[in-house]
Amino acid sequence: MKLKTIELPAFCATVDLYLRNNVSRGKDLLPAVIICPGGGYQMISDRESEPIALAFLSHGYHALVVNYPVLAKNETITSDYLDNNTRLLADIFKEIEDKQDKWKIDPNAVFLLGCSAGGHMASLYAGQWEKVAKTQNPSHSKPLGNVLCYPVIGFDYGWPNASGLESELLKAYDAAAHINAETPDTFIWHTVNDGLISVLHSLKYCEGLTKQTIPFEGHFFENGRHGLSLATRASAESKKGEQINQPVAKWLPLCVEWMERRLNY
To answer: InterPro entries attached here (predicted)?
Structure first.
């Protein structure tokens, strides 16, 4: 495994690049996962960064963790901020395309994963990637699949940080409203009693996917706090506590199985 940080100064962002040692006989290009951690747009969650990256490395994927710009305390979310983060993801897909031989990443086998607020970022991109990436190679800008972990989908479903937002933002940045025929297949999971981001976010997104006949797999677990990440000791702040949840930890192998079905290998 090699860790390298890529700077994207135009977006005030960096990307932590985790590259596997390629043990395949033909040194084939490998699939990858772009990870957008959560943090309420005010921080980048360490628990949803490297632990998830290393988990996917163990399953044969390269991983890229996006350290997107975050808001200062009490700073208001604006359309410019949200749009900048969506364009950032398009730029990362372009970066992968340009460096595919150096990084040994297959640009046609790149998945996008978002947790919580990072799930909002990923789901917005999933519904707008073609428009956002119109100046780039569209075939290399669409995720092979979208993985959403207890995501924020819109500001109208009970996100605590949404108070005071202008009404036009509430509608324009509802990711469920942007689902269309070009939205990638989706794997989504949530806990039913998430105390911060209501499960209604994920249910609303699943409804939109159903209406557009986009293939998806959804898993809704009975119990679990918000921000579980892997739900194992590998991503927990303490070896004893609510961040370890064995039933919820099943999401990762289920997700990998879903991803493998989409690879043409």
So the answer is: AB_hydrolase_fold (IPR029058), BD-FAE-like_dom (IPR049492)
The domain in which residue 175 lies consists of: 2-260
> Contact 57/63 with Cβ under 8 angstroms?
yes
In whole angstroms, give the CA distance from residue 37 to residue 54: 14
pTM: 0.95
- Distance between CA 215 and CA 94 in Å, rounded? 25
Distances (CA, A) of 114 to 33, 38, 100, 168, 210: 10, 7, 22, 24, 20
**Token reading at 154:** 């819109």
Instruction: Please give the Cα distance from 91 to 94 (Å, whole number).
Output: 5
Q: Which of 184, 162, 164 is nearest to 174 (CA)?
A: 162
Q: Give pLDDT tens digits for 10-44.
A: 999 999 999 998 877 766 899 999 999 999 999 99
